[in-house]
UniProtKB/TrEMBL annotation:
<keyword id="KW-0520">NAD</keyword>
<dbReference type="Pfam" id="PF01946">
    <property type="entry name" value="Thi4"/>
</dbReference>
<feature type="binding site">
    <location>
        <position position="192"/>
    </location>
    <ligand>
        <name>substrate</name>
    </ligand>
</feature>
<dbReference type="GO" id="GO:0009570">
    <property type="term" value="C:chloroplast stroma"/>
</dbReference>
<keyword id="KW-0784">Thiamine biosynthesis</keyword>
<dbReference type="InterPro" id="IPR036188">
    <property type="entry name" value="FAD/NAD-bd_sf"/>
</dbReference>
<dbReference type="GO" id="GO:0160205">
    <property type="term" value="F:cysteine-dependent adenosine diphosphate thiazole synthase activity"/>
</dbReference>
<dbReference type="InterPro" id="IPR027495">
    <property type="entry name" value="Sti35"/>
</dbReference>
<comment type="similarity">
    <text>Belongs to the THI4 family.</text>
</comment>
<keyword id="KW-0808">Transferase</keyword>
<keyword id="KW-0934">Plastid</keyword>
<dbReference type="GO" id="GO:0009228">
    <property type="term" value="P:thiamine biosynthetic process"/>
</dbReference>
<feature type="region of interest" description="Disordered">
    <location>
        <begin position="25"/>
        <end position="49"/>
    </location>
</feature>
<feature type="binding site">
    <location>
        <position position="223"/>
    </location>
    <ligand>
        <name>substrate</name>
    </ligand>
</feature>
<keyword id="KW-0479">Metal-binding</keyword>
<protein>
    <recommendedName>
        <fullName>Thiamine thiazole synthase, chloroplastic</fullName>
        <ecNumber>2.4.2.60</ecNumber>
    </recommendedName>
</protein>
<feature type="binding site">
    <location>
        <begin position="119"/>
        <end position="120"/>
    </location>
    <ligand>
        <name>substrate</name>
    </ligand>
</feature>
Length: 355
């Protein structure tokens, strides 16, 4: 987040922000009577809407009947089927912030690649629901706006950057497109407690309900579960209670030497560095997003989000390369044809018995 500005207190209650004339103001003065809106991108369509009545009578609306046990069975059966399906998967993405979501979105374009997303929070999205200091707008520096064009997210265009009117517009759009794909499953409220490591290679994650992970010290032993994976993408964000957990665990087991932590804010240096340093840090594990800054001591970038998106994309193509799939890293995107190979367990209902 951007550093908070220091504000001097004043004893003059009549002095307003617009009356104050600083001695070293380098921006364009703002008119007190009128705020001029930024010029919108020419690609934004004119919205024309007409109100149509719902396809049912709101005055006498009534739901179809259902047994409470059916609701329970539907949720349990489908979730457990997903757990069976993704217990052994191609890619596990740990952390569903802007980098993790961008990575999973890019991976999901290949229907032959199965993707499980692990997110400790009930609400995925990380810090991308807001901009900086609880403000709503999201700033994205060019040319990362091309990713927004692909998603169909509108923005106000400036010379070197664009502004999305609310960060939640990006987050909700990428989530809706990603989670609709059949080869992706989001396991939210699930924590990655540890890594599976075999013969010096990361081979999956150790999982548990997030609320259980938070209460190990208050209860007796509550053993975890596992997800095996050919590739793990760690996008746990900057350091914190659940932040940078992937690289911190690598250090604690001796697979990397240090986690120096991110340096002070420098947007111009930080975003380029995050994308450039996104890589497979140890065999089987790719690090993306702000977790890259933690392991490399790169500067933080504050409330600009383009590096998260492009770092996530790069991580996806590094994962595709590790899987032997077409990818943009070695220039094989669009070469030949990827045939769908994924068969979801949920597609086979013959062996499922309703109790």
């Amino acid at each position: 987040m951007a550093a908070m500005a220091t504000t001097a207190l004043t004893s003059n209650p009549k002095l307003s922000f617009f009356d104050h004339k600083p001695t070293s103001f380098h921006g364009k003065p703002v008119s007190q009577s009128r705020l001029t809106p930024t010029k919108s991108s020419s690609k934004q369509p004119t919205i024309s809407m007409s109100l149509t009545p719902p396809p049912y009578d709101l005055q006498s609306f009534k739901f179809q009947p259902i047994k409470e046990s059916i609701v329970s069975r539907e949720m349990t059966r489908r979730y457990m089927t997903d757990m069976i399906t993704y217990a052994d998967t191609d890619v596990v993405v740990v952390g569903a912030g802007s980098a993790g979501l961008s990575c999973a979105y890019e991976l999901s374009k290949n229907p032959a690649v199965s993707v499980a997303i692990i997110e400790q929070s009930v609400s995925p999205g990380g810090g991308a629901w807001l901009g900086g200091q609880l403000f709503s707008a999201m700033v994205v520096r060019k040319p990362a706006h091309l990713f927004l064009d692909e998603l169909g997210v509108d923005y106000d265009e400036q010379e070197h950057y664009v502004v999305i009117k609310h960060a939640a517009l990006f987050t909700s759009t990428i989530m809706s497109k990603l989670l609709a794909r059949p080869n992706v499953k989001l396991f939210n409220a699930v924590a990655a407690e540890d890594l599976i490591v075999k013969e010096g290679r990361v081979a999956g994650v150790v999982t548990n309900w997030a609320l259980v992970s938070m209460n190990h010290d208050t209860q007796s032993c509550m053993d975890p579960n596992v997800m095996e994976a050919k590739v793990v993408v760690s996008s746990c964000g900057h350091d914190g209670p659940f932040g940078a957990t992937g690289v911190k665990r690598l250090k604690s087991i001796g697979m990397i030497d240090s986690v120096p932590g991110m340096k002070a804010l420098d947007m111009n240096t930080a975003e380029d560095a995050i994308v450039r340093l996104t890589r497979e840090i140890v065999p089987g594990m790719i690090v993306t997003g702000m977790e890259v800054a933690e392991i490399d001591g790169a500067p933080r970038m504050g409330p600009t989000f383009g590096a998260m998106m492009i770092s996530g994309q790069k991580a996806a193509h590094l994962a595709l390369k590790a899987l032997g799939r077409n990818n943009a890293i070695d220039g094989t995107c669009g070469v030949g044809r990827e045939e769908p190979e994924l068969v979801l367990a949920s597609a086979n209902t013959e062996d499922i018995v309703d109790a």
